[in-house]
Amino acid sequence: APSPDFETLIERNEARAQLTLNNPFFLLLRSEGLPTERKRAILCDCLRVFADSFQALLLLRQAMCKDKSYAEPFHEHLLEELDHNLLLDAPATKQVLQDATLKAVSTWFSHQMLVLDNVDKAVVNLVLETAGYYLGVLAEPIFAGKKGADFYHTHAGADSEHRDLGLALIRGQTPG
Which are the contacts of 9, defined by CB distance < 8 A and separation ≥ 6? Predict the structure, then answer.
């Protein structure tokens, strides 16, 4: 049976996800606030910066992992996610590429792969894949038949499974 700490982590992750769904970004998606091609393109540009950083996160996580019980599932996840960032066109504007806040937020997660242990990396995976799942589910109908649709469709389906990868690695771990 899962430990109480594991159940608490799962409950907290979902509670935080539900809170996050009420932030301006997710409210924009929930209210279908991207009615024009230009607005959808701006979102895709910004998400491409994050998606590029996520690719770096996966590579760093793999490079820094020596424990076979983590290395194999991390590698499988890397192979499944490889080049998903290319499903979004590269940002069309230098302004997006130079946005300091977007770059800082995006690269913070990659830095965690250098400093966290494998259990904590699995927790970061759980959080990011939960967010990716909700992003995909909410954005998929907005982008259906439009530029960027493949990215959101892929993540609406795959990120639930990728979140479960993190859960499997965390199950049975104890705090400390």
Answer: 123, 126, 170
CA atoms within 13 A on the CB side of 71: 6
Residue 109 near residue 130 (C-beta atoms within 8 A): no
Q: What is the arithmetic mean of pLDDT over 153-172?
A: 80
For residue 2, pLDDT beyond 60: no
- Give the chain's radius of gyration (CA, Å): 16
Distance of CA 26 to the CA centre of its chain: 14
User: How far is 138 from 124, CA to CA, in rounded Å?
Assistant: 21
* Selection from 155, 126, 113 nearest residue 17 by Cα: 126
The pLDDT tens digits for 61-74 are 999 999 999 999 99
Name which residue leads in pLDDT, 171 or 4. 171
Q: Is the pLDDT of residue 172 over 90?
A: no
For residue 130, how far is the Cα from the chain centroid?
7
Structure tokens at 137: 């589910």
Provide the H-helix boundaries in 31-174. Answer: 37-64, 68-81, 94-97, 100-115, 118-143, 149-170
